[in-house]
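User: I'm curious whether this sequence folds into something compact or stays loose and floppy. Could you predict its structure so I can see for myself?
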Amino acid sequence: MSDLLSQNWENFLKIQAVGDWNGIWTRLAANGELVERFHGVRSYVVYPDREAVVQKNHYRYEDGSSESRTFGPYKQGELTTPFLDYAWTWGYTPKIERGQLYLFETCLKHERLGVSSGCKYLEDGSLHHVTSIWETLDFFRGEPKEVEHTSSGNWKGTMISTITPDLIIATSSDCQWKPIDELAKENLIVRFSNGVTVSLPETAAYDRESLIITDWLVNPHLLKRGIRHYNNEGKFSHFSLMTFIP
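Assistant: Here's the prediction. I'll summarize afterward.
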């Protein structure tokens, strides 16, 4: 097993596979209308030898029904989902192909809080929905209400880290602030009340460069940004994580 796969596995165990992530899942249609909102728990069970992990998701819906799903086991030496500085990103396919279902998720962490943004594109390339997950480790303490989004020009970058699909990591302090709606002006912007903003193509980006961006206003003094980068062939090229302070 390569050193990069080994380190990525250790990052998975440290960042995500640490117990129960308990929170609220909110799905919006491309036009911003609410599709569904429900309670979800993502539970991780690490094998005693730390060489495999099982993920169990439990959902409780507003109509009183519930559902559970099991994923994995994820195995050491096989996990290629990029984990980076308390963030990770997962995609259904490394290349956006015509005629395929496509899903992605980007997750950002801070202390015992985590947010995720995800999207689902249908086989015809149309955007079906955008999901925001607000979750806390172990015990759910409530989702923030009506976080005020910011477009302030007073933010400054403190660090940018990148990771490729080959799990190669680079870090730099050269991190310039731009509001999310100026990074990919052709993108659709979806804002959630919990401080999460997602910028993504309105239709699946076949054979062209594109960005899928997640901003999280953690608090008035910290903003995190995760970006999935795709090249002009529609292939996932790298994931970048930026941190900004006022």
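Summary: The chain has a mean pLDDT of 91. The two ends are 42 Å apart (CA to CA).
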